[in-house]
Amino acid sequence: MENVQVRRDFIAGTRRLENYFWSILLFFGGIGFIAKGLIDLLAARSEQFTQPVVMIFYGYIALCLCIYLVCSIVWNVGSGYNEFNKQTKEMKLVRWGFPGKYRRVVVTVPFQELQEVSIQSQTFGLQPNSISISCKNGQKLPILQTNLTLGQLEYYATQIAYYLQLPLKDTTLI
């Protein structure tokens, strides 16, 4: 590995293909539920009043979730970078959040506070595999959480551990 003084790894946020898919699906599904509910409600069938109201409610909830997801995509929530600087001997984690006072979150940790690089992987379940760095005070800082294969995850964690001269710990949950 080359002698690089500053290593910067970029982290993808919410601008992923599956989020675009879900926002489009929620939009058209919500519009469909609202339209069907309004048509049934305006058809003046007095014996079926609650079903159209419930369908309109479900459509409204779907549109609210769609708006939330589109805002997350536009603001690219969760994106950022991990910077490992050998000159200043610091690790800097930068992430973007929702607009407001704490839109940009920056965590800076000196190298001497870092203890180990750990991989958390699951053979089943919905939680994605992740890489975190443990500090001497017991705090775990997540540096990568994505749906990479286990081989890709191990390769990335090995590179980080080698660069920082830290031990690598593998935690596999069965």
Report on the architecture of this protein.
This protein is α+β, with helices and mostly antiparallel strands. The chain folds into two domains: 59 residues; 96 residues, Roll (PH-domain like), CATH 2.30.29. Helix content is 39%, strand content 30%. The protein contains three helices and eight strands. The protein has a four-stranded antiparallel sheet, with no helix packed on it. A four-stranded mixed sheet has the order 7-6-5-8, with helices on one face. A hairpin with a 7-residue loop joins β5 and β6. The radius of gyration is 23 Å and the shape is elongated. The chain starts with 5 loop residues before the first strand and ends with a strand.
Question: Short description, anyone?
Answer:
The protein is α+β, with helices and mostly antiparallel strands. It has helices at 17-42, 50-75, 150-164; strands at 6-11, 80-85, 90-96, 104-110, 114-122, 130-135, 140-145, 168-173. The chain is 39% helix and 30% strand.
How many separate helices? 3
| Top CATH class of the largest domain | Mainly Beta
Tally of domains? 2
N-to-C terminal Cα separation, in Å? 33 Å
| CATH homologous superfamily label of the largest domain | Pleckstrin-homology domain (PH domain)/Phosphotyrosine-binding domain (PTB)
How many β strands by DSSP? Answer: 8
Computed CA radius of gyration, to the nearest angstrom:
23 Å
Arithmetic mean of pLDDT? 87
Judging from the principal axes of the Cα atoms, what is the shape? elongated
Structural class: alpha+beta
For the record, the CATH architecture of the largest domain stands as Roll
Q: Widest sheet: strand order?
A: 1-2-3-4
**Main sheet?**
4 strands, antiparallel
The CATH topology assignment of the largest domain is PH-domain like
User: What is the subunit arrangement here?
Assistant: single chain
Ranges where pLDDT stays below 50 over 5 or more residues in a row are none
H/E element sequence: EHHEEEEEEHE
